[in-house]
Amino acid sequence: MARSWKEAKMYQEPNKSPWGAVQTCDTLCPGVFLVSTASHGGTMVSNEVAAFLSPAAKRCGFRRGGYLCFEEDTQEEVVLRELLDKKLWQIPERIKDKAAFEENINRSIKRYNPEYWRARQSGLEAAQSARKEAPARQTER
Fold first, then answer.
1. Over the stretch 70-104, which tens digit does the pLDDT of each residue have?
2. Terminal-residue alpha carbon distance, the chain
């Protein structure tokens, strides 16, 4: 089955970014691109894929040219955390200490995006609570 124009665009690597012309682009997962320019970079998430991000994560980015963009210095870790949590991306094999890498992501989020971190933690706690209650409800029948 052929993909529609919109689907093809969603998976197309960007050639320009809010930070300038894209020099390198790595696809983290379909529709999510880690871009570098001559002076800066970040992560660009196609609008269609951005629908999978939490509302708290979306508030950390900014929209530009069909993408939700996350600047590399302070917001990019939010996207990495979301992709890891949703199992849409794995820490690359070239990174030997994966636990330290993940802790650096968390530390950066806590420092630069504390509202996102609080919302994420609250969501995790609610999910854990719901899982604990689910078996009890089934046995009451």
1. 999 999 999 999 999 999 999 999 999 999 999 99
2. 45
Q: Measured between alpha carbons, how far is 108 from 60 in angstroms, rounded to an integer?
A: 13
Output phi, psi for 88, to 5 deg: -100, -10
pLDDT of residue 124: 82
Give me the amino acid identity at 110.
K
Residue 103, SS3? helix
* Closest by Cα among 54, 51, 45, 28 to 124: 54
Label residue 90 left, alpha or beta by phi (over 0 means left) and psi (-120 to 50 means alpha). Answer: beta
Q: 103 is written with which tokens?
A: 């802790």
Structure tokens at 76: 């990019």
pLDDT value, residue 12:
86
* Residue numbers in the chain where pLDDT is lower than 70: 1-9, 134-141
- The answer to whether 66 and 47 are in contact (CB under 8 A) is yes
Angle, vertex CA 20, rays to CA 93 and CA 54, nearest 5: 55
Report yes or no: 33 and 99 within 8 Å, Cβ to Cβ.
no
Helix (H) / strand (E) containing 129: helix 114-139
